[in-house]
Design goal:
- The complex is a heterodimer of chains A (319) and B (262).
- Chain A is mainly alpha-helical and 319 residues long.
- Chain A has one domain.
- Chain A has 14 helices and four strands.
- In chain A, the strands form two sheets. Chain A has a two-stranded antiparallel ribbon with strand order 1-2.
- In chain A, α2 runs parallel beside α7 and α4 runs antiparallel to α10.
- The longest helix of chain A has 27 residues.
- Chain A is globular, with a radius of gyration of 20 Å.
- Chain B is globular.
- Chain B has a six-stranded mixed β-sheet with strand order 6-7-8-3-9-10, sandwiched between helices.
- Chain B has a domain of 170 residues: 3-Layer(aba) Sandwich (Rossmann fold), CATH 3.40.50.
- Chain B is built from eleven helices and ten strands.
- The relative contact order of chain B is 0.17.
- The chains are: A mainly alpha (319), B alpha/beta (262).
Chain lengths: 319, 262
């Protein structure tokens, strides 16, 4: 029953570009999908390991910049002279994920000695630092002039330039991330993360190494956010320091919290609803000034009446 | 019997407050040793120092000949020394079965990479862990409640679940911090029977408890702490007759009730 529903849902998602003859809506779906991937990665840290990363967009942006730079090639004279040739995009995307994963490891190592509120602060500071680097290290990042003409992904002779192709690409990566996260949370590692979030002293008493599993969660989460960033870079084909804006982290947090943190489907449901809601409001011909007010109100209502999120509320009704 | 846990001149100070002073004792393999004493005597502090939650100010703790100082709690657990907590401590938002599965952490071998790649042995191990977890729940008598949320279990069952989580970690020495506090007399009686079964599994038990009926009933030896110092160490019968223990902890009334027919 559950599998049948999932397959049907996936079938509908796959078929969208076939019947949806609206390039703009497809664009919205692609961007929403990219953010859902980022939200799923945030959910691993926030929902399972219980750590709020308010700098999650840093990993997204690092993935976007690293992937764009490797695919374009770059030349540096400071701090040392180095010239990197342009590489194929698939390799660049892997490098983007790796760069994001490494920064996740780094942040995890230094930040998880201090948890809770301190981690929140470290994560916010981290994204600000990275943003300042992106703005000021003009030689590498072009600063506010942005990295332009980023090539689209090309594999086996297929170029992911048009929207339907990008849609399927994003959908594929999202499904892959979903499966990986499900494997992780239904395993010893996932249980260790949950245990730490629920009751850290008890978790350590049965031999769970706190830092190790928090760092693991941070690395996997950051790498997935980096993958989302890389998809973004090669889809919109321009990256500027605005990818590090706080509002993007907020968007991810909203998707996770409203959908239901600590559930696999939560970020997907929350992401689809709150990613597509602005378009829905526009279609409903609500005055532009009122659209964001309605958006905010709906969010408050969801959080107020379904404090654990939409997905847990439905599971409860069915159970 | 050889000592499985040896504590030498342990001191724990919080600033100017000496919670434990020069505590020396040993737990012998296979025995049930109870640590008793008035509130604030340092029993839980001793537990915390032994299991690495607190750093000792001075002294040595060794477990099966290995020094524990500087080891993390999780590393100490991996050696086979597992404790429970004075205040009920379970993973409230998870099912009873999941709670025990978490307790089985040290017995699983799956690595993060193998999990992400879904190597076949991961699924096999998961299945094996699941049946292990069910066996542990059956042992403490919670198999019918395995799908219930830990926080929704009645109090007595939560305390049993705590023991199940600790047992899942395959301890050689199990340290129980007031396991029957808040239990009613019949629950306490059945817990005493369970303790005998745990012991029969070859697990050494270090017990902190205020329920004297239980302490005197299950212990091979009793150590009495008062104001951070050991004031007596002996068999239950010796402890009950010890004038200093009576003065500091048991009280005159206890001697009249229990000591009278001892």
């Amino acid at each position: 029953m559950k599998t049948a529903f999932a397959v049907a849902f996936l079938g509908i998602l796959i078929s969208v570009p076939v019947w949806l003859d609206n390039a703009y809506l497809l664009h919205v779906l692609i961007v929403t999908g990219i953010f859902i991937i980022a939200a799923m990665s945030l959910n691993l840290l926030l929902g399972y390991a219980g750590q709020l990363s308010l700098g999650h967009v840093a990993f997204f942006g690092i993935g976007a910049y690293a992937s764009a730079l490797v695919s374009l090639g770059f030349k540096l004279t400071f701090p040392f002279e180095i010239e990197i040739q342009a590489r194929p995009v698939w390799l660049a995307m892997l490098m983007g994920m790796t760069a994001a994963g490494l920064s996740g490891w780094f942040i995890g190592r230094i930040a998880f000695k201090v948890r809770g509120a301190y981690f929140v602060i470290v994560s916010i500071s981290f994204v600000e630092v990275v943003r300042m680097v992106a703005v000021n290290w003009v030689e590498l990042t072009q600063g506010p002039m942005a990295l332009n003409n980023i090539p689209p992904l090309e594999v086996w002779g297929v170029t992911f330039l048009r929207k339907p192709a990008n849609y399927w690409l994003v959908l594929g990566v999202a499904v892959a991330c979903y499966i990986l996260i499900r494997r992780l949370v239904c395993s010893r590692a996932g249980r260790a993360m949950v245990a730490l979030a629920e009751n850290e002293p008890l978790a350590t008493s049965v031999g769970i190494d706190v830092t190790r599993y928090l760092v693991l969660a941070a690395v996997v989460s950051a790498a997935m956010a980096g993958a989302a960033g890389a998809l973004y870079a090669h889809y919109v084909r321009i990256v500027d320091p605005d990818v590090f804006l706080f509002i993007y982290t907020v968007t991810m947090v909203i998707m996770v919290i409203t959908g239901g943190k600590g559930t696999l489907a939560g970020p997907v449901v929350g992401g689809l609803i709150f990613g597509l809601l602005p378009e829905g409001l526009r279609a409903a011909a609500i005055a532009p000034e009122a659209q964001w007010i309605v958006y905010g109100l709906l969010m408050v209502l969801v959080v107020y009446f379904l404090p654990r999120g939409i997905v847990p509320a439905f599971t409860k009704i069915r159970g | 019997m050889t000592p499985i846990l040896q504590i030498r001149d342990l001191s724990v100070r919080f600033g100017g407050l000496a919670a434990i002073t020069d505590m020396s004792m040993e737990v012998r393999e296979g025995e049930v040793l109870s640590l008793i004493g008035p509130n604030g005597a340092g029993k839980t502090t001793a537990f915390n120092a032994i299991t690495g939650y607190l750093a000792a100010s001075a002294g040595d703790i060794s477990f099966m000949g290995k020094k524990l100082s500087g080891l993390k709690t999780s590393e100490i657990a991996a050696l086979g020394l597992v404790r429970t907590f004075q205040k009920t401590s379970v993973f409230g938002g998870r099912s009873a079965l999941d709670n025990v599965l978490i307790g089985l952490h040290l017995r699983a071998r799956q690595t993060p990479l193998a999990i992400l790649l879904a190597l076949p042995y991961v699924a096999r191990e998961e299945q094996h862990l699941r049946s292990e977890a069910e066996a542990v729940l059956r042992f403490v008598g919670l198999e019918k409640r395995k799908q219930e949320l830990a926080s929704a279990l009645p109090y007595g069952d939560q305390r049993l679940l705590e023991v199940a989580i600790a047992l899942a970690a395959k301890p050689k020495l199990l340290m129980l911090d007031e396991p029957v506090s808040g239990m009613n007399p019949s629950e306490t009686a059945s817990f005493m029977a369970k303790l005998a079964e745990i012991r029969a599994l070859g697990i050494t038990v270090l017990l902190v408890e205020h329920d004297m009926k239980m302490v005197m009933g299950v212990s091979d030896r009793v150590v009495c702490l008062s104001q951070g110092r050991i004031i007596a160490d002996g068999t239950p019968a010796e402890i009950q007759r010890d004038p200093e223990v009576i003065r500091a902890y048991l009280g005159e009334r206890f001697r009249r009730v229990v000591g009278g027919n001892a």
